[in-house]
Design brief:
Order of helices and strands of chain A: HHEHEE
Oligomer: heterotrimer
Helix content of chain A: 25-40%
Strand order of the largest sheet of chain A: 2-3
Number of helices of chain A: 3
Number of strands of chain B: 17
Chains: A alpha+beta, B alpha+beta, C alpha/beta
Largest interface: A-C, 51 and 67 residues
Largest sheet of chain A: 2 strands, antiparallel
Largest sheet of chain B: 9 strands, mixed
Number of helices of chain B: 16
Structural class of chain B: alpha+beta
Structural class of chain A: alpha+beta
Chain lengths: ~100, ~500, ~500
């Protein structure tokens, strides 16, 4: 499967990673190489094989409905690049 | 019960049908969030109810809250829906400032609840069945404030991670009235179940409404074939947060679509926002970009496998729901309408049942509440819980009417007294001498006195029997309203020699 | 003993208890060794003050007779484990200033057991790499050099800093994490022991996630006994990790010397690959001979889907990573680009500046394989292959108790040798990655060296939650191999 430049731009946009135009072509080549190598999986007949959902054979553990966290806005905000009045601040979002 | 007759809208080129489906987000009633131990309480200081998990700090992991699972199952049972013993949590990937992890944990292909059904009651007494497609559990996002600063948005994550039930209907609603009735009914059901507080003002329940229009007959063909091609292109109206707005939004959107199609245009499938102030829907800029959510099973969680026995246990504790209650009330002699009004809110039904427990007869109690007491509450702007008269007191009033101890007229006066002053209605009737006069001789005396005083009226009434009402009024005046009206009528008829057909 | 840094973990524990050395003395010696090893670039953050404070407390406890299992033992922690109040970078610029307000469960378990933290070790960015060359903090150098060249070699990856620190005796032992081989592969090429436990054995809480269904923490140590000792302290059932498993943690040291007599050892034929250096096959054959000589039963088995493990991994791991790394958006923590004109610009620039090339590449692969129209062809197919790979092991374990394989396709290679071709780099994990896909425990144990004197490892793979047998078999190899060579401390002169 070769990955073309438009596909690279599209997935870079989906992944929110700015990609200089100069990097699009080499990235397309790298991804094509990797995806080409991955193609060998098509050799295997997987009809009637269930996809793995978990390597762990146990049921999902559950928590009790008890409030045990929160109330620590200070610690929460300590690593924030920009905060104000205990809000995280981002450039204005237009809906 | 019918599939619901379409309400046809008239356009310039002919008639149109509306088809409506709904996705309702109902906040699960729980102390803590779906995957963390942070509180769900409403209205706290910004970012004060946020765990490191909710903020998607590096290395933080979700662990599911058992109560939220139980609430979803309970709601599913209340919607008469299939409970899926195995369900899977998926990640829905997209970037937004109030979505800390860059994905929402939701259930995509394998929801916890499958198909169910809600019956809605319309004003004309008709009932319509609305199919439920599914119910799944998911996380709420945080809140972005956009209007606090010219260049910045502010992000508060208190809501981030709160458990929501997304309830998806089939496109089975045919008018704004049905859409509004559905939301009201769904709200009643979750409130009965105690799984959501239904508080639309605080956003505990929000609806996204899918609206499309088609020519008459299109819907029927869709129902017969299951093929969506018979329906028009739909638009999704986001976050409609009141029953009233739903009706407005649907009406506006249907009209908008009809105008476009009739002008030769095509409807673009899109997400729109209802602007309550303008009463219109508008396209959402932020949703214009094509989405590719890249759903995949959340590897931090295992499949959610429920034990049949646990589901049965939850089923055994389900309260009586509005439909069952309504049927029971109707069996007690109530009209479908009265029963529907009484069961619409659990508090109302409970109040009514308290009155019956205290000895009131069902139909009389229903009439009294619907025709008298609720009107008073309404006028005073009070909820049932805030109202000044207890079920016991109202029950006493109803029972005294039924036993002819007081007349309907006196009952209203008595209600005024209890409303304003409180007290035991029976004691008040006793102490203030409000008992109805049923003694015929006393009434005869009063009738004779009125006749004697107004000979000219006696002549008039003989020509125009309808004027008898004037005499009734005079007699009631004389007796201070306490005379039994039936007795007054009967005696007047004899004395005035009126015909018997009333 | 010439220096306290020559102690093994178990040896230091015994010496502390016997009061032959104090925790403070031991810690000071290691703080010195960490400083001396700086040319290796094994540590991203050194925490000598904290180490001294912890050691002091340990001495007080020892004096009171209240020593805990790892009391006073200086360890290095891979910089993927969040440590409260101590910068945790995951080897990335995007977290270069991140100071967690919480502690990972595994590191907390270690501190609760009395261990001393020397610092945080360098690693491939977000654990994506097999050579420690993708770190934002520069490459780590392997303490080992070829006898015939002074070229700097990679220590393997992604836990390359931990491997180098242990091999250079700059700590008694270290923690690592293993998503496709990131403990075992560096352990093999650095001449130390590395154990990847069963998925769910150690909590993932507080470990910066790479690929959630594959990530697992484990010990990196000088010998097998130390691995047993450290694993016992690291492992726990954690209510904060839905995938941590409720199986009691045994005393792994207890059974260590029981030998392999009667043990059925499977030899999977698919692990013989074209193009591998003959030394690898020769070492493997030697390992088989050692086991046989000690009374084990050797059984030929087949794991038919082995060759698909690596491509399967390179779908599953990037897919999960693309989602796990979406949280690094410059809003709540981590690097934020300057001068962004809107929110999308902020995301795109912050992530482009914050993530290195390999991480970006894997995020893009992951985004691609999950995207609409490709999900079934790639992701679902890969998860089906994963079922088949796991089933291969289930079938094999009907006939044997553990599997013996090479750990890597070759010894440590030169810095820069494989950076140009991603696939050639990925092939370093060809023997290790199957185990992650199946969630099984496996250990790499030093078993010999190349003609140039570079260490090589053998891998023992076990049944789920049977780390005890894995350790016992590894101990048997260790005894037979008697690999006692140490790297020449060239870095001290540097």
């Amino acid at each position: 499967m070769s990955v073309d430049k438009d596909t690279v731009r599209r997935i870079a946009r989906l992944a929110r990673i700015a990609l200089d135009e100069a990097r699009v072509e080499p990235m397309a080549a790298e991804l094509s190489g990797i995806m080409g190598w991955v193609e060998q999986l098509n050799e295997v007949d997987v009809t009637n094989v269930a996809p793995m959902t978990s390597v762990v054979a146990q049921s999902l553990k559950m928590r009790d409905d008890v409030v045990s966290e929160g109330g620590n806005a200070e610690a929460l905000m300590a690593n924030a690049p920009e905060g104000e009045d205990r809000f995280f601040v981002v450039p204005k979002v237009v809906e | 019960m019918s599939a619901g007759a379409p309400k046809l809208l008239k356009g310039d080129t002919g008639e149109w049908e509306i088809v409506i489906g709904m996705e309702v987000h109902a906040q699960v009633l729980s102390n803590a969030k779906l995957f963390s131990g942070a509180s769900t309480a409403f209205g706290a200081e910004p970012n004060s109810q946020v765990s490191f998990v909710d903020a998607a700090m590096p290395g933080m992991l979700p662990v599911i809250n058992r109560k939220c699972v139980e609430q979803a199952v309970r709601t599913g049972l209340g919607l008469k829906a299939k409970i899926n013993l195995t369900s899977i949590f998926d990640r829905k990937n997209y970037f937004y400032p109030d979505l800390p992890a860059g994905y929402q944990i939701s259930q995509y292909k394998n929801p916890i609840v499958g198909e169910g059904e809600v019956t809605i009651d319309l004003a004309d007494g008709e009932s319509v069945r609305v199919g439920i497609e599914r119910l799944h559990l998911e996380q709420d996002a945080g809140k972005s404030l956009h209007d606090q600063h010219p260049d910045h948005s502010y992000v508060d994550l208190n809501r981030a991670g709160v458990a929501l039930m997304e309830i998806v209907t089939k496109p089975h609603m045919r008018s704004s009235e049905e859409a509004a009735a559905f939301l009201k009914k769904l709200r009643a059901i979750v409130r009965y179940l105690g799984t959501c507080d239904g508080n639309m003002d605080e956003g505990s329940m929000r609806a996204d409404v899918n609206v499309s229009v088609c020519r008459p007959g299109g819907y029927q063909r869709f129902r017969e074939s299951g093929d969506f091609k018979h329906l028009g292109t739909r638009c999704e109206i986001k976050n409609v947060n009141s029953v009233r707005f739903i009706a407005q939004a649907v009406e506006y959107e249907a009209r908008r679509q009809i105008e476009i199609v009739e002008a030769g245009g095509t409807i673009r499938q899109e997400t729109r926002l209802f602007d309550a102030r303008a009463g219109e829907t508008r396209s959402m800029r932020s949703k214009e970009e094509a989405h590719d959510y890249r759903y995949f099973p959340d590897p931090d969680l295992l499949p959610l496998v429920l034990e049949r026995a646990w589901v049965d246990e939850i089923a055994a504790t389900l309260p009586e729901l509005p439909d069952e209650k309504k049927a029971r009330f109707m069996a007690l002699g109530l009209s479908a309408y009265d029963a529907a009004v009484l069961v619409a809110e659990r508090e109302t039904a409970d109040y009514f049942e308290e009155m019956l427990k205290d000895g009131a007869e069902a139909k009389a109690a229903a009439n009294w509440l619907n025709n008298e007491y609720f009107g008073r509450l309404n006028k005073a702007g009070l909820s049932l819980a805030e109202g000044p008269i207890s079920p016991k007191a109202n029950s006493a009033i109803v029972q005294m009417i039924a036993a002819d101890v007081i007349s309907g007229k006196i009952a209203k006066d008595l209600c005024d007294i209890v409303w304003n002053e409180g007290g035991d209605p029976r004691a008040i009737v006793e102490s203030r001498g409000l008992k109805q006069v049923t003694d015929t001789s006393a009434i005869e005396k009063a009738v004779d006195a009125v006749i004697a005083a107004h000979p000219e009226k006696v002549e008039e009434v003989k020509a125009k029997p309808k004027l008898a009402g004037w005499f009734v009024g005079q007699v009631m005046k004389q007796t201070g309203g306490k005379a039994n009206p039936q007795a007054v009528n009967a005696i007047l008829k004899t004395r005035l020699g009126l015909p018997d057909e009333g | 003993m010439s220096s306290p840094t020559d102690f093994t973990l178990a040896g230091a524990r015994d010496a502390l208890r016997a009061k032959e050395v104090s925790a403070v003395e031991l810690t000071e010696a290691f703080i010195g060794a960490v400083e001396a090893a700086r040319p290796l670039n094994a540590f991203v953050t050194e925490t000598p003050d904290r180490a001294r404070a912890m050691a002091k407390e340990s001495d007080a406890r020892i004096a009171k007779g209240e020593a805990r299992p790892l009391e006073g033992l200086p360890l290095a922690i891979k910089d993927l484990f969040c440590t409260k109040g101590v910068r945790t970078t995951a080897g990335s610029n995007i977290l270069s200033n991140f100071v967690p307000p919480y502690e990972s469960t595994v590191s907390q378990n270690l501190w609760d057991a009395g261990a001393v933290m020397l610092g945080k070790t360098n690693m491939d960015e977000f654990a994506m790499g097999s050579s420690n060359e993708t770190s934002a903090f520069g490459p780590v150098f392997n303490p080992w050099r070829s006898r015939t060249s002074n070229a700097k070699l990679v220590p393997g990856g992604s836990s390359g800093g931990s491997a180098a620190a242990v091999a250079a005796q700059a700590c008694l032992a270290a923690t690592g994490t293993d998503t496709g081989g990131s403990i075992r592969q560096p352990a093999a090429v650095a001449g130390i022991v590395g154990l990847k436990p069963t998925y769910g054995r150690c909590s993932r809480y507080g470990i910066v996630a790479f690929a959630s269904s594959l990530d697992q923490a484990g010990p990196m140590t000088r010998n097998v006994r130390d691995a047993a000792l450290l694993l016992r302290a690291m492992a726990s059932v954690d209510p904060k990790d839905s995938t941590s498993v409720d199986v009691p943690v045994p005393d792994y040291e207890a059974d260590l010397e029981r030998g392999v007599k009667g043990l059925r050892i499977g030899i999977p034929k698919e692990y013989r690959i074209d193009g591998a250096p003959p030394e690898i096959d020769a070492l493997w054959a030697e390992g088989v001979a050692w086991m046989k000589a000690q009374g084990a039963e050797i059984i030929d088995v087949s794991l038919p889907h082995t060759k698909y493990a690596l491509p399967t991994y390179y779908i599953v791991a990037p897919a999960e990573a693309s989602s796990n790394l979406a949280r690094y958006d410059g809003v709540r923590f981590g690097h934020r680009a300057k001068g962004a004109h809107d929110i999308a610009d902020l995301y795109e620039k912050s992530r482009a500046e914050g993530f290195g090339r390999e991480v970006q590449r894997r995020i893009l692969i992951g985004t691609y394989v999950l995207s609409s129209g490709y999900y079934d062809a790639y992701y679902i197919r890969a998860q089906k292959l994963r079922s088949l790979i796991a089933d291969d092991f289930t079938q094999a374990y009907k006939k044997c108790d553990v599997l013996l394989t090479p750990a890597t396709p070759g010894p440590a290679f030169a810095v820069g040798a494989k950076t140009a071709d991603p696939v050639s780099m990925y092939l370093n994990d060809v023997f290790t990655v199957t185990v992650n896909l199946a969630g099984l425990p496996a250990i790499s144990v030093p078993a010999g060296a190349t003609a140039d004197g570079l260490p090589l490892g053998l891998q023992v793979i076990g049944k789920a939650f049977d780390e005890a047998t894995v350790l016992r078999a590894a101990r048997a190899i260790e005894v037979a191999a008697n690999f006692t060579a140490r790297p020449q401390p060239w870095w001290r002169a540097a």
